[in-house]
Structure formats: structure tokens, C-alpha cells
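S1.2 Input.
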Amino acid sequence: MAQELSHKYYKELINLQDATGVESQFQSLLEVPIESVSDLEKWLLDEKTFIHKLDEAMTGHLVDFNRNTEDEDIKATYLHDQQVILPLIMKYEAKLNEKLCDSPYFHELNEERYGLMRRARESKVKLFREENIPLMVKEQELNTRYSEIMGGLTVEWEGEEKPFPFIQSQLDHLDRAVREKAYHKMMGAYRQIKPDMDSIMDELVQLRHQVALNAGFENYRDYMFVSKNREYSVQDCYDFQENVEKHIIPAWNRLAEVFKSKLGVDTYRPWDNNAKLMKNAPYTDVADLMDGVAEMLGKTDAYFAERFNYMRENGLLDLGDRKGKSPGGFCTSLPVSGETFVFANFSPSFFSLIALIHEMGHAVNGYLEFSEHGPTEDYQLRMEVAELYSHGMELLLLDKLDRFYPEKEDFKSAQRELLRRAFTMLFGPLSGDLFQHWMYTNPNHTAKERDEKYFEISKRYGLNPVDTTGFEEEVGMSWAGTLHYFQVPFYNIEYSISMLGALQLLENYQKDPAQAIEDYKKGAGADYNQSIAAIYEETGVNFDFTEPAVKRMGEFLEKVIQDIN
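S1.3 Output.
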């Protein structure tokens, strides 16, 4: 179903085409005298108001571009933001950070309210190098190129040109011949764009490595840990990877044996790994999808449904596939409007249903945060927190999948499939994190070595039970379809960490649904100036990815799957 591509969902309270005017507003902030703590707090509020105007306009332009990468006017607006406004922001953000951190009143700011902000902005001062600005602008240009290539990618299917998400959706199919055909079509598409993907990634790795060197780091991995203000170490990540390999992968292999039996196949091949046992796609068009998700949310909590219906009525959802639309899905906040926007480019499939529910977890989180505390600022955005509420929403709706799968066996299969997805989220993003650790600590690797490393890591984790004989090259090059590696480096392990918290939320929901939902909403509207552990605690779960926690939640997940009968 075609959707209106309206610009009415965001506010442009600042003219980004007037770069001189934007710069003058930055300069005005720099010239404000600060002679007391109260002056500093007022200055921070004025700075925030201005930054939010910039953020809303730039976010709106970004969403416009993702919705239609082939519109030259939209692209020109977006590229102007990236090539002209972004360098200004980076230049003056550094000056504003210095002004703040150099103020004699900086450390007199209230710790509870400003402590996280102080630490984040001190890190930015430490990381900033003016020579990195053109490198970061070039990085955005390469990411734009990636979106254009993927947005324009189509595949021939039974005599028709289909958007790439349609072919991906066919991997769900119960008919093995359809799945195998779709897999070959996907790999053919990847092979077609692989030279471009290699070229883009080669340049991104070198750009990012130089950014890190300029900032005084040995590699981009170490730079990103400081940039993200992570509350855990590199070694904690390696330990987590080992613990998942030790406790989760054996359970995944056991589950694969059961699944292989249910599929009725002797050999578990790459096109079987995403197969679904449900007979049909859960919906036929976007209207059906939205009607059903609204019902599921309403049966869980009235506020969840109210937010979804509001977004639907106000043009804040763009769902479904079409040519020229960027791949994937995301939820983004509009800080001036106080809105959230959900974007998705998926054909009818089980995954597209769950992806919408996932993004609505982000949206509910965003609305609750805004109503309790106003717009969330960039230093407060820790994905280990954000993904807790997206994964949590998926699992809170586990018992309502019969809305899309009314037949008893299909309903049980859908529940098992969502829980099987929970398994994949414990190791899939984590293996992607390990892949990036390798890429950026070995920045001079070749494209061939990158493919080989991706295949090796894939076989250790998600493809461990799969017979990949003869498809080593295909598996090795399939990293090219993961936008995170291009556009949001080192945003991966957060999915796996937060899934452990979401499984605890499911455990709580099974014991006391009303209390679990109340805890979910409390945590989703918590003060984000707290530590990750404190926010998790408000949600009724623990921020813990040590070996005992991994082992316990893996056993819990396996038992929940076994109990569905």
C-alpha cells in the first residue's frame, strides 16, 4: 500500500540553508558571560534549546532521505546538512564543550542532575581533533552512498522486479525450494554490489582508524569505547563472547536439531536457518499489520495502544517496502515536537511484524521519557538501555501472537519463533561485535581476509549447526547487508546485553503480568542521568552479563520454548 511522503511530522524552526545564520547562533552562545552556577545552568538550557532545533531539522531531513533516496531535492538537502552544517556543528560543539569544561562553576553543577553530562562532555573534549572533521564528513558521505546502493537494490523474482526486502522475506517460506531460490537470489544481489561494498568499507576502516590515531588512540575500537562512555570494558565484551559460546551455542545447536526435524530436512543448510513453520505470512498489507499490532498493544497496556494509534493518525509511521527506500528499520526522536517516528522497509513476514513491535518499544520509551523529563539528550542515549525496552516489548507481546496466527499450531510455532529470535539476539549481534573488534584492531586487512574472518565468526556462533559446505564465499560476503557495520559502528553488543534484561522481564511477566508492565513503564520513563544498572533496577531486572547470568537466562529461554505445547 503506497504511503504519503509528507514532511509534516517534524518542525523546521531553523533555516539550515543559511549556514552563516547557524554559525552566528553558535557564536552568540560562545560569547555569553557566565559568572555563577545559575548563569551556567541558564546557558546550558539555551544551548540545549538551540541544539534541539538543529537536531529536529537534521533528523527530519535524514528520515526524508531514508524514505526516498532517489529524490534529488531531498538528497541535496540531506547532503547540505552533512557537508556544510555537520562540520559547523562539530567545530562549535568542541568550542562549547571547552567553554563548559573550562568554567570555574563546571564542577559545582549538581552531580545527580549533571554528573553524566559532565563526564560525557569531558570525554568529547578529550576526543576532539579539528583534523578529524573532514574525515567524519567523508564518513557520512560514504554512508549516504551505502544507503543509495541498498535503497536501489532490486531482484528479479518470477518475471517481476522486486525490492530487496521482498526476497529476504521469502526465506521465511515453509517451502524449502522457495527458500533456496530466495537465498541464491539474495547472494546474487550481494555479489553484484560486493565491489562497491568492499570499496566503501575499506575506506571507512581507514578513515576511522585515522580518526582514532589523531585522537591519540591505538585503534578505533578503543576510541569508540571512550566515545560511547561505556560502563564496561573491552575485556568484559570478550568474556561475554566466550560465555555465550560456552552456554548459549550448545543450546542453539540442540534447538536446531529439533527445528531440523520439524522442517523434515536431513541436512540443515543456510536457507533453512531462517525458515518459519507457520503456513503463511502474518499479514497482506500495511493496514492489516497496523490493525493487528494496535490490538496486541491494547491487550497489553492501554497507553501502548494509545501511542501507536496516535502515531498512525499523525503520519509518524512509514512501513512496508518500496524501491528507493533505505533498508532496515529504526525509531528516531524529534526533540522539538516531542514525537517519535518509526521507519521500516520490510515485506510481509514474521520478522517485519516483530520489527514493528520492537520499534514500538523504542517509541513508547521515547514518549515516556519526554513526558517525564523532556527531550533525551545525546549523552543520555545508551543503547544498552534503549534496546531493553524494544526487546522487552517483543516478549511482553509473546502471548498475543494469536492475533496474526489464529490457528493453534501456527500460534505455538510463532511463539517458538519469537523465542528462537531471542536466542539469535544473544549471539548474533555479539558475533557482529567481535567482527568489528577484529576489523578495527587489524585496520590493514584485505577484503578477502574480512570475508574469511566473517565466515569464521559466523560458524562459531549462529551458523554453528548449519552445513555451509560450498557456500563459504556466500556466507563470508553477507556482512555487506548489515547496515550497522557501515553506519553505526560498534552498535551491536548492546542488543545481546539488553536481551538478557528482556528475558528477565519475561520471567517477571510470567509470574505477575501487571507488575512487570508497571516496571517496564517505570524504567522506560526513568531518569536517564542514572547508571545503566540503576535504570535496569527500576525496570525490575539486573544489568548483568557475567557467566552465571548468561547460563541462567539461557536455561530459562530453553525451558520456555520446551514448555510451549
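S1.4 Remarks. The longest helix spans residues 176-214.
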